[in-house]
Fold this protein.
Amino acid sequence: MEPLSHAFKERSVWALQDETLQVALNRAKDGFAVKRAKAVDALPEFEALRDRAVAIKNHTLENLDHYLERYADAVERSGGKVHWASSAEDARRIVVDICRASGARMITKGKSMVGEEVGVNGALEEAGFEVVETDLGEYIIQLAHEPPSHIIVPAVHKTRGQIAELFHQNHEKYGLTRKLAEVPEMVNEARQVLRDKYLAADVGITGANFLIAESGTSVIVTNEGNGDLTCSLPKVHIVTAGIEKVVPSAEDASTLLRLLGRSATGQDMTTYTTFTTGPKRPGDTDGPEEYHVVLIDNGRTTMLGDQFREMLRCIRCGACMNHCPVYGAIGGHAYGWVYPGPMGSVLTPLAVGLKEAGNLPNACTLNGHCAEVCPVRIPLPDLLRTLRHREYQLRLGLKPMRWGLAAWVWFTTHPRIYRLGTRVQARMLALLAGRKGRFRRMPLAGSWFRGGRDLPAPQGETFMAVWQRRQRGRK
Amino acid sequence: MNASAADSGAAGAVASPRVGLFVTCLANIYRPNVGLAAVALLEKAGCTVEVPMTQTCCGQPSYNNGDLDGAAKTARQTIEAFEDFDYVVAPSGSCGGMLRDFPRLFASEPGWQHRAQALADKTYELISFLTDIRGMTSVDAAYPHRVTYHDSCHGLRALGIKEQPRRLLATVRGLELAELADSEICCGFGGTFCVKYPEISGRMVADKAGAINATEAEVLLGGDLGCLLNIAGRFGREGGRVRVYHVAEVLAGMADVPGLGDPRQPKGGS
């Protein structure tokens, strides 16, 4: 997907002005945070689980080559095939080639963020395949020709009315002409349409929440059961996964699963947790004839070797964005690429470059809520600050900001001048504000006021001046 | 004076520690009354307070905008100004938290890192210092108003400040605390964030003002002037009736001046 992150500022302003989007965001706002808090409160060992998860992930990342090889061997032993994709292009080509080789026409997809990252759908459609997303949220945005705006609830930005309209427009061709109003009706209609697709599909593509090295098993969590149908009904199953998804054992996966549902939706477990290992064996009643895994690097080994390694612990739960006040105000599309919110503000510049996405790490108040809820304790604010440092070193930021910072540092290292300067500033601002005690506007400070606020005026004297006078009086 | 405050110091507390007040840029320029309130509270808690004249800024503008060398220069200034004190106390969780982060700036300078660590280890935010280190359990102040409290993010998450101000506020005569829904959600200040992304910041502070209004409090209190200037600015624009003070001003019985952004001569006073 072509990144639009360079236009973050404009896109965020549009988002703030989009009344329908604001309705959808407000409706979603507290739901996830409240549900997560309840689930966490109900599990006394939650903090211990987080520590365990961090240890599992760190250990795996330190020995990633070993566990990836173990995983690949186990997949091959179970009759599956592993493909290594170092880039997004590689991943697209591999998936298209597998589909072509199997003579497929129709492809169903379970939700996969890495699929979005490398642009699987576009490549398949270009190659002439019919691709149908089976996760309800993904299905909705596919109909709307939009990217996901959240990593676990991709259509969170859509209102019920918008979805009803989309279904009305797109389901007519299946003879479903009634305009729906209630959620259960809409879910049923989507289910009806998708059921035929599952049965007709030649290839099913899913992502993976975890890859278990000891057994070559891939794990996906869903609430709709669409993942099961996608990976078991077609004769070919393709798993697309980032290389950081591997964990040593089933026990490790279960530790992480206990955190994932609670952190994401406040569920102890999602409705379905699906384990798939290899193709159908002789005597199995169902399952695919071919089982492929595409292991995708796409920049991950670079992260492994630099200051951003901790980001590879991410299990894609979405808790950071669910608790991010900036995400809550503007939604996911403003970020302009695949991953929004705090985790996206780290991943996007690493993937598409700071020149394109320099706004993302800056558009954060460093309030720390994301790190507080991250199940694998990724220090997101620190990583965002590190990206700002990189941006500064590359001289990519705005020049006036650079000059301003340099001037400020000079000022702060010359205390006499600092005291005098602040004294003049405090006195002058207080005089200018007069009895009103605040400013409604001020030259050169327009940005403050563009936030729809006045600027309180200083009391008039600096504290240092008051203190010096007081000390003189005491002597 | 509340004699019990000084006497009931936490175990191991120095009898009369020398405290260097890191007043912070915003208190220095905008609100000297906060600095004076901090001094009054620290003295009540049995501290000898000094204000080094060579202090300036904590360095957050540089640190949070990627200029780590600049931040280190400012940090050296602060370390030199304060390293001789028993404690360094700031009426701000944000600036206090920054001083605690100083060692990170000197990863490749062991000498300075050592000094930065020593400073970080004795740096506290004002209210948590009074309660957690000096064992203050009550204040001698009256403030017969319905107030609400905003938990500033850095104090809350970096320094664990949540109950401390509430415990002291509970001993202010006549004060009624109405808890704020979403009190742990950022107000949208975020240092330079508020001028880099004013529209997003503006939405966040408008939401915050709405939540404060819903408490029907007359006064908003908080521990960080950045957030308070932002919120007071929003109320000013809305024509709201909520007044805004730093929590130290109320605890020290010094909230008898106009609130942040209030007209210079209040009608009728408070």
User: Anything to note?
Assistant: Chain A has three domains: 43-301, 318-393, 399-474. The two ends of chain A are 71 Å apart (CA to CA). The domain at 43-301 of chain A is CATH 3.40.50.10420 (Rossmann fold). The first helix of chain A runs from residue 8 to 17.
